[in-house]
Amino acid sequence: MRLQNKVIIVTGSTTGIGKAIAIRCAAEGAKIVVHGLENDWGKEVVEQLGKDKAVLHIEDLSNEGTPERLVQLAINTFGKLDAVVNNAAIVASSNIHTTGLSFLRKLLEVNAIAPFALIKAALPELTKNKGCVLNIGSVNAYSGEPNLLAYSMTKGALMTMTRNLGDTLHRENGVRVNQINPGWVLTETETIRKREHGLPDNWYEDIAPVYAPAGRILWPHEIAAAAVYWLADESGPISGQVVDLEQHPFIGRNPPKDASAIVKK
């Protein structure tokens, strides 16, 4: 039980990668504050984990006071807080022509500013318990797909924050801050996005090797397995690190621009 008795907030954990992280952390002995926007899905996650191991909070992270309420819920329910997983994010397609300022501000608010606010709200408790933060970024942080401009910008901001706080908070507060950048993961949201792009529902069964040398993309539980290491004491004093989780070297590759090319012809 690598996370025995640890209390962890996992944002965006009613679905996708966040849900997988919550499930894996609970299996490793942690108690979880489940968070998201989907109340019914959230209740299902809590039922799966067990009401003695999980508590649910449904609220938009960009709302005033949400970070503080999440932290207080962890303390009131489980008596402490050991770790924060900043996973919640808006994934939305846009480019220079379709990215309006209000749209960009909303993505920045949820994907970059809200994680900062939650770290800040949790810092006194994390300092007390020598806890840690794990930010869930994206390999798009380095440049991004042509039609993921705004999203990629927010993940770049998150990565810079991780590097910065991973140094300062570790030195000053004994709190480690690290990040994993997943590559292409088969989540519910990704399935919906590809359907909107005109691909068939089984698109993931036959992906071109340039995108998936293994013949498939990643599963959420594989990201969750990696997350446990960074949340557990076994990662020791490591802080300020960003690890890419993809099946091929990401930086420097130039795959086809045609989105339909993901599927073998």
TrEMBL record:
SUPFAM superfamilies: NAD(P)-binding Rossmann-fold domains
InterPro entries: NAD(P)-bd_dom_sf, Sc_DH/Rdtase_CS, SDR_fam
Gene3D superfamilies for this protein: NAD(P)-binding Rossmann-like Domain
A Pfam family hit: adh_short_C2
Annotated family: Belongs to the short-chain dehydrogenases/reductases (SDR) family.
Descriptive protein name: SDR family oxidoreductase
Lineage of the species this protein comes from: Bacteria, Pseudomonadati, Bacteroidota, Chitinophagia, Chitinophagales
